[in-house]
Amino acid sequence: MTVMTQMSTTINMPEMPGEEPLLIAQGLTRWYGRRIGCRNVSFDLYEGEVMAVVGESGSGKTTLLNLLSSQMEPSSGQVLYRMRDGVTRDLARMDEAERRLLARTDWGFVHQDPAMGLRMRISAGANVGERLMAIGWRHYGRIRDTGTNWLHQVEIDASRIDDIPMTYSGGMRQRLQIARNLVTQPRLILMDEPTGGLDVSVQARLLDLLRGLAADLALSVVVVTHDLAVARLLSHRIMVMKEGEVVETGLTDQVLDDPREPYTQLLVASILPP
């Protein structure tokens, strides 16, 4: 499978008439004692759609991502997911083994710190191959060939396949983490500040890669970021959070070009260039 990394500067919203959502969040709320993490967050995410969740630190966006990925249980509300057989299931009603299988097959999670999503002391090829072995692959040659192909797709030289991630740069580690997540052809990718901590030039290269992969593979993506420029480049739709609540949502260009809420106006004025 060949992935095009050169994409146009605009992304068209996918047409989804009559299609069932892939992921449904209903009234998600999480309390930390008396402090609210997020409150009453609801949305539908469709196949091939990229949604950005933006806001300042402490706005609740990372809490929301942890609830969606089942890394944290909600105080109330639920997350529903449409399985490959077409049945929509409540994640809370799945047993732990089912959720682990889902995380290894249909889902990917890209951390801001690649060290959280990689095994740093095994080779790059083993990092990618490990996820294939988790879904039953056993043929070494096939696993290595697939790993080599994915390193190529994320712009890592195949000669580095036997090197450990500790010898990689930050940008290369992040691209390796992306390859590890995508090798099982998931339908949903959750990203937590995927360009955070990277140099500007490295960010731009990674964003081009992510945009190309999301479009070519028709991935559904929820990306958490504080950077509105990242949201504009990657997402079809945007959700703005403040103090744990959604204050504005809509098509990305519409919200960023003509924000209705004072908080969104402040974010746009302070982060995006005029």
Would you write up a description of this structure?
With 274 residues, the protein is of the alpha/beta class. The protein has a domain at 18-106 and 189-197 and 221-274: Rossmann fold (3-Layer(aba) Sandwich). Helix content is 35%, strand content 23%. The chain has nine helices and ten strands. The protein has helices at residues 61-68, 96-105, 124-134, 140-153, 170-182, 200-216, 228-234, 252-257, 262-271, and strands at residues 23-32, 35-45, 50-54, 76-82, 88-90, 107-110, 188-192, 220-225, 237-242, 245-251. The strands form two sheets. The chain has a six-stranded mixed beta sheet, with helices on both faces. Strand 9 and strand 10 (245-251) form a beta hairpin. Helix 4 crosses helix 5. The N and C termini lie far apart (40 Å).
Which features does this protein show?
274 residues, alpha/beta, Rossmann fold, 9 helices, globular, disordered N terminus
Question: Care to give the gist of this entry?
Answer:
The protein has helices at about 60-70, 95-105, 125-135, 140-155, 170-180, 200-215, 230-235, 250-255, 260-270, and strands at about 25-30, 35-45, 50-55, 75-80, 90, 105-110, 190, 220-225, 235-240, 245-250. About 35% of the residues lie in helices and about 25% in strands.
